[in-house]
Amino acid sequence: MGLEPTTTCLGSKHSTTELHPQNKYLKAKSSQVFTSYLFDKFITNRTSGTSQKTITLYHFALDKFIGYSLTPEGINAYLNSLTCGNAKHNYFRCIKTLCRWLYQNDYIQSNPIEKVSPPKRQTKLLPAISKEQLQTLLEHCEAHESCERDKAIINLLWYSGMRLSEVANVKAKDFDWDKGTVIVLGKGNKYRKALAIGKQWFATHDSFEVTARCIQTMLQRLTIETGIHCNPHSFRRGFCVHQVKSGLSTRVVQALGGWEQLTMVEHYSKSLSFDDALDVYHKNNQPRL
Length: 289
Description:
The chain has helices at residues 16-19, 36-46, 52-62, 72-80, 88-104, 131-140, 147-160, 164-169, 199-202, 212-226, 232-245, 250-257, 262-268, 274-284; strands at 175-176, 181-185, 191-195.
């Protein structure tokens, strides 16, 4: 008996299972199958108040789910066909949102996701840019024509903890330099306040005048030149780790960085060692004589 074809994540080609959903998991008897009609209804409902990035994620995750049965067995079969590690959680969350919407709008009689366990996460810590690595990256910007802009972008990413889309779309008029804050359009298409960095650049420029993709390309170039693994989120993790090491509570860091869940901040700060904690203690406590 041959092995079941697998599906890689985010933008890969469809497997033969997806194109020909004929096995017992995909078309369970007496169960409803997820169709393009239901998908279109769901997407149409989500367009209001949902960011384009989230809509794109729904397409990546749910296009390939079409043809599977809306049962715990069908959902598990789809998740098990994915080969993308922790990224499976993005797919699980999309299916969870889909099933909740289908159930609330009477397209299905029960919510199958309630009987599906979330994919297990790998516990490895992802790279976070340290302050020393930040300085190395800034020095390597000097050799390029776009030096000042690149340095301003990198500083804003690390010192503010802003997301890539927030940095790419920020405008000079969004800054309040007196208060040291900036209004950005963040995750979930919601506005939030962030820390303001880059006054020198925005004194003479309305924006960074580059797309999010251009910023990613610049960071990929610096990765090759320095050997430091840097992507937009590694700067955001670096902001988190640095602030916790500096003595800020995880809840304060959560508010400054705009994280919806405290667990993300706690996960990133797992790299905090005993010596780091001891330094924070000495900064905030006078020794008894």
